């Protein structure tokens, strides 16, 4: 896939992607946190939200040019020919129209509900309920995209998978160097600093006491980078095997949709009992972390977060109507 001349806006967007690379790799430590709807609400739930400290403006730019943004990202993994690119762009146009007109208004309503929740302390049950709401919206997005993904998978050729495999290997090498081959104190420091940036984006500056509590909470997270790297590699291997199966066997479209649906479902956990237990423990620890964050804030900080949410609500509604 070749884009020819790339406008300064897209260059800026690509540069932003590169600057955010370490952030996204770090988020990969949190199985619940890697969703493109990263348009919902971090606040007390950054494991379910993007945590994009750049603010809403960059999201509006990315969303308004969603087809090109997505193709730009995809080009890092696979080089599409002209017909494949035309197919992908047409389907993305349809998907983004659906998402803009049906899902963004729903996100605005969810953000309004979160604004109300900020007025009182949160209980563990609140965190689980919000997590369920977020997960349901993720499932809706994926289900809508499955037929289009199936058609694109059926259009791929075997030689195109080589680039995907190399990109996976490159990503894993980067992860190894930045998260596995580092000391535990360095890893904890980096995690705390990233979380502090996200929290202060939403709540404003934290006091020294609040920072100490946040540091204690992030230090207590049961992070195991080697185990998560093994899970990543297992998922990548399964995904490549699935694509090879689709290309070689050319199953019926409905069969491919079912295969992709099953794969997406498995991404929420792990077939390996040790890694599955790790994911579940880490998810519980993340919920505890965000409960701690939400409940240690002052009324003024919660008001700051509510205002930030108001900006997101305005953007959701503006994008939905554009």
The tally of helices reads: 13
- Stretches with pLDDT under 50, minimum 5 residues: 1-56
Strand content: under 5%
Structural class: mainly alpha
Can you tell me the number of structural domains? Answer: 1
Structure description:
This protein has one domain. The protein is built from 13 helices and no strands. It has helices at residues 8-19, 21-27, 56-64, 66-74, 82-117, 124-155, 161-180, 184-203, 208-219, 225-249, 253-266, 273-295, 299-321. Helix 4 (66-74) packs across helix 5 (82-117), helix 6 packs antiparallel against helix 11 (253-266) and helix 7 (161-180) packs antiparallel against helix 10 (225-249). The longest helix is centred in the first third of the chain and has 36 residues, at 82-117.
Explain briefly what this protein structure is.
The protein is an all-alpha fold and 322 residues long.
Secondary structure elements and pairings:
Blueprint: H1 8-19, H2 21-27, H3 56-64, H4 66-74, H5 82-117, H6 124-155, H7 161-180, H8 184-203, H9 208-219, H10 225-249, H11 253-266, H12 273-295, H13 299-321
